Amino acid sequence: MTFKTIAVLGAGGGIGAALVEQLTLRPDVQLIHASRHAEPTVLAAGNGTDERADAAPIRWSVLEASDEAAVRNWVESLPAIDWMINCIGMLHDQAHGPEKSIRQLDPDHFISSMTINCLPTLLLGKYALPVLRKSPAGVFATVSARVGSISDNHLGGWYSYRASKAALNMSLKCLAIEWARVTRNIRVAALHPGTTDTPLSRPFQGNVPHGKLFSPQKTARLLLEQIDALHDHPSGRFIAYDGEEIPW
Ligand SMILES: NC(=O)c1ccc[n+]([C@@H]2O[C@H](COP(=O)([O-])OP(=O)(O)OC[C@H]3O[C@@H](n4cnc5c(N)ncnc54)[C@H](OP(=O)(O)O)[C@@H]3O)[C@@H](O)[C@H]2O)c1
Asked: Range of 158's domain?
C-alpha cells in the first residue's frame, strides 16, 4: 500500500470537514494538512495537530487562500503531497444572494465570488507543482459546481457564482494541459459534489428533489470514490459525485 499525505483546503466547511473526517480514517492516509479560513470557535488554537490513536494525524493551519504570500508560504511549508483538494467556496454572504436577474448584479459580490471561488485554485496551482510532482499518483482537485458548466446552463441567473465557477473550471483545464507537459503523475479535476446540506446551500434547498440532498458525509464518500479513480483517466476532467463527466 502507498501511504498518502493529503492537503485539504476549506476544511472548516461542510464538505471539507467531512472529507477530512473520512480521510483520517483511511488506512492509506498517513497525514492530513488541513486549512481553514477562520479560527474555529470550538478549538483553542487554529494552528495545531489533532492526533487520535486510530486515525491519521491532522495538521491544522489558518490560511487566507486568496492571499498570494500566505498561499506561497503555506505550500512551501508542506512536504511532498499526494492529493491537494480545495473545498473553499462561497455562494452567498450576509449582504448578497445569487442573482435572479442581471439587474441584481453587485460588483463587490462579483469580485468576492471570483476571489473566493477561483483565485485560490490559481494561487495553489502557481506554487503546488514542486510538492505534487514528487507523488507517484498526484491529484489536484477543486470542488466546483455543475452550474459552472457553460453548456449545461439552461436556467441562467446566479451570475457571480456561475461565472466564478466557470472561471475556476477554465483555470483547472489550463493547469491540466500545462502540467501534462511536465509530468504524467498528476491528475487535475473539477468536482461537482451534488447538492449537499451545508451552510452554502441551506437557503436554496427548497426545490431539491427528494433523495437529492446529500449529507456532507455522503458527498465526501462519493467524492473520494471519484478521486480514487482519477488515475484511471486522463487529466483535466469535470466530474460529478457519481462519475458522470460534465461538459465544460
Ligand atoms: N453545498 C452544496 O450544495 C454545493 C453544491 C455545489 C458545489 N458546492 C461547492 O462545494 C464547496 C464546499 O462548499 P460547502 O457546501 O462545504 O460550503 P461551506 O460549508 O459554506 O464551506 C465553504 C468553505 O469555504 C471557506 N471559505 C469561505 N469564504 C472564504 C474565504 N474568503 N477565504 C477562504 N475560505 C473561505 C469556508 O471557510 P471557513 O468555514 O473557515 O470560513 C468553508 O471552509 C464550495 O466550493 C461550493 O461552491 C457546494
From this structure: 4-240
